[in-house]
Amino acid sequence: MIRTADALAQITARLKDAGIEEPRREARLLLAAALGTSAGGLLARDEVDETAYEPLLARRVAREPLAYITGHREFWGLDFLVSPATLIPRPDTETLIEAVLDSGLQPRTVLDLGTGTGCLLLATLHEFRAAFGVGVDLNPEAAALARRNAEHLGLGTRAVFLAGSWADALDTKFDLVLSNPPYIESADIPELMPEVAGYEPGRALDGGADGLDAYKAIIAVLPQILSENGMAVLELGAGQAPSVTLLSEAAGFTCATKQDLAGIERAALLRFRK
Ligand SMILES: C[S@@+](CC[C@H](N)C(=O)[O-])C[C@H]1O[C@@H](n2cnc3c(N)ncnc32)[C@H](O)[C@@H]1O
Questions:
Q1: What is the number of the ligand 1 atom nearest to the C-alpha of 112?
Q2: 102 pairs with which residues across the strands?
Q3: Which atom belonging to ligand 1 lies closest to the Cα atom of 182?
Q4: Which of 20, 43, 68, 156 could form a disulfide with 151 if both were Cys (CB 3.0 to 4.6 A apart)?
Q5: Burial of 34 (0-12, 13-18, 19+ CB in 10 A)
Q6: How high is the pLDDT of residue 39?
Q7: ipTM over 0.90
């Protein structure tokens, strides 16, 4: 056994040596996860067993994302289960939910293309208590994870999840279409942080040679899946707003954008041009 404070100091030092950005914060979260308690629960323990945290620490030192190790990530104030089947939800993606709330739209039906953990759809259903939603992901394991999240968050009766490509299996229109598609240019993927390039699935990241493959596919199908007065909100990668605006306008939509907290145009809001 070792004093908890000493264990935290050792873990912090190992994480710092491995190049982890917030080693002290992560040390607390990692030790809490290893002991099956909360960060607050650690305070109640004077001593911990060193062998309890070594396997998790070794994974994090190898730059596996903390969220894959703990199995959880918060999004929009909600707790999501995560797995290597799909992307870990990012704070930037919350910009899309803010954009929907700012728009004044009161969606009754919501579609989330490339749903992953289900974070966008489920956060939206959490906000709009009368809405019903469909989430689609190419990876059946992601669709199954999103279903577990819906149950976990008490939203299981208002959400269904399908495995398939974009809207191929759908023959109905929605008030709101959401998507955070894969948008990284293929050649840039090896240059991403080790946590991303080494662990998050290529299918969740790779937007093709120009990063725009998924936007082209989704915008092409929007006329079949968006209600006349509906809105589509697509996440943008840095610098992609002009290209996505052009694609949207060429397909008969108006396109407004919303910035994230860093001032990057992060969300594209598409409506039918009248
Ligand atoms: C960037 S991740 C976003 C996940 C989640 N919506 C989020 O915001 O965290 C993109 C997701 O799109 C899925 N995907 C990729 N190609 C797809 C396709 N053709 N049809 C449906 N989903 C697809 C991936 O499996 C991945 O889960």
A1: 6
A2: none
A3: 1
A4: 156
A5: buried
A6: 78
A7: yes
